[in-house]
């Protein structure tokens, strides 16, 4: 009762990285609140394949739901698992990935339980809250912190009265850290039929193509990122040249993606990928919070911008005041000249 | 088969240009201070609806929007592009709603419209980026749901076949009707306005938009042409429970809103001059930061 729960996302028999990141965060929140960390794993043929890894992140109790219809994911069966389990277990917090699955499942579960859900959080903390209207004081609430409103502000959201307090977090935002290779947690193999009615298995997946990401932004040591200031698709070709020279990857801000300069998969920020490269070269990026949220832990930040007052310059180690089409070719030229 | 389709659409502030007065002290959005647009992914949803109507004669497409009186623009825009009618859900009691209270209000309105075969909406709205309202409406109406839809491939024998995007790929799924779909921005763009429809519906309005003092010269048109009347519903009209609407019905509260101030670093300032760029590259190479 009153514990912290994490829904683990499982592709075939592999637990997604985002789930380990959330378990790590969940462990910390549970410690702070003095409660246990519990996890849910649902899929087909996962028994014996996922338990040890999940427990190693400090899970006190793992609920395994293993049945033929639970993979590939469809909305209703997984919703029933969470809703019916939560009615028994009364968790105070539930975390899930802000992935296609988490963003399909989270709202359906929250609606069913009439609990609050905050999407795409960039930080989660425990703290107190005073309701100005009712004068009521609450202790130990989950602060769900997220950029809002196109990334122009950061809002702290709380769910004072409804449980569980639900939040989704994007992949890469939190860091995964194992607690112990063999953590002594309890494993419960649940009877799926007790939680999921037959009538839930209505949506049929008839075809599925998944490809490995065509970029390696998340793990790249050097990223050359372009914003609206790059100006065009052709401008991005220039960034690709620099990235190729430096053995890095190309990323983008939301403004550049929205303008059609490059593909959505390159988007860095709250609603894109979170990155922590050694070097981040921001080309024509103004630095909306929504973007900075996804790159602020970069090692060295170099900002190339015609505007000397661009917000991103405040977190940059080097600020080059100039245009992308002027500076980037020079960087390529002098890198070639000096690197050999 | 002919289909009864409802499209959920939201009028959103254009978050691409936000000034200082964009938020109220309570931490909700100050919509009056911003240009209002048709939420982009809701237009993708409308296009899927109109395509189904083209393929299945006798089908109807109605828009449903919740918002202040000026949100009627969304319904009119839908009519100009081929929708058959629309509903404006408007009441002060709906104000300040989070996604759960919003989905409650919309689901009550859909119950009043009466059992649709397909409810379509955009994946998410650009002012909140939550993607929550679609699935929550589906849950409240006990409908099946498929999110991130990029194309409705076919509808036949009470079943719908869809293509959707998933993390790193695509999926094709088959599901029984009735169903709620959220449509992503990768789906086909919406068709433009149709000039004939703009002429036909230019005076379409909700009752609250019209003066009541008899000064409207073409008032009689609304009796002669019932299609010019955009239905306008309050909480009571949709049999709404006030406890579940607006701020009262919202489990999430905004504790604080901040304009984030970046922790300023000591940054080296350079110009685009060749010598300065070359020095920087050399410095990074010497420290093995690059290369």
Compact description:
The complex is a heterodimer of chains A (340) and B (291). By secondary structure, chain A is of the alpha/beta class. Chain A has helices at 17-33, 51-55, 75-89, 100-113, 192-195, 233-246, 254-258, 289-292, 324-339, and strands at 4-8, 10-11, 14-15, 37-43, 61-66, 93-97, 117-121, 123-130, 137-148, 153-158, 165-169, 186-189, 204-210, 222-226, 249-252, 279-283, 300-305, 318-321.
Structure notes:
Chain A is of the alpha/beta class and 340 residues long. Chain A contains nine helices and 18 strands. In chain A, the strands form four sheets. Chain A has a seven-stranded parallel sheet, sandwiched between helices. A five-stranded parallel sheet of chain A has the order 15-14-16-17-18. Chain B is 25% helix and 26% strand. Chain B starts with a strand and ends in a 5-residue tail after the last helix. Chain B is α/β, with parallel strands linked by helices. Chain B has helices at residues 40-55, 72-81, 99-113, 133-140, 195-201, 221-224, 274-286, and strands at residues 4-8, 11-13, 36-38, 60-66, 85-89, 118-122, 144-156, 159-166, 169-176, 179-183, 231-233, 253-258, 268-271. Chain B has seven helices and 13 strands. The chains are: A alpha/beta (340), B alpha/beta (291). Chains A and B meet through helix 3, helix 4, strand 7, strand 9 and strand 10 of A and helix 3, helix 4, strand 7, strand 8 and strand 9 of B.
Topology:
The complex is a heterodimer of chains A (340) and B (291).
Chain A: E1 4-8, E2 10-11, E3 14-15, H1 17-33, E4 37-43, H2 51-55, E5 61-66, H3 75-89, E6 93-97, H4 100-113, E7 117-121, E8 123-130, E9 137-148, E10 153-158, E11 165-169, E12 186-189, H5 192-195, E13 204-210, E14 222-226, H6 233-246, E15 249-252, H7 254-258, E16 279-283, H8 289-292, E17 300-305, E18 318-321, H9 324-339
Parallel strand pairs in A: 1-4, 1-6, 4-5, 5-12, 6-11, 7-11, 14-15, 14-16, 16-17, 17-18
Antiparallel strand pairs in A: 2-3, 8-9, 9-10
Helix pairs in contact in A: 3-4, 6-9
Chain B: E1 4-8, E2 11-13, E3 36-38, H1 40-55, E4 60-66, H2 72-81, E5 85-89, H3 99-113, E6 118-122, H4 133-140, E7 144-156, E8 159-166, E9 169-176, E10 179-183, H5 195-201, H6 221-224, E11 231-233, E12 253-258, E13 268-271, H7 274-286
Parallel strand pairs in B: 1-4, 1-6, 4-5, 5-11, 6-10, 7-10
Antiparallel strand pairs in B: 2-3, 7-8, 8-9
Helix pairs in contact in B: 2-5, 3-4
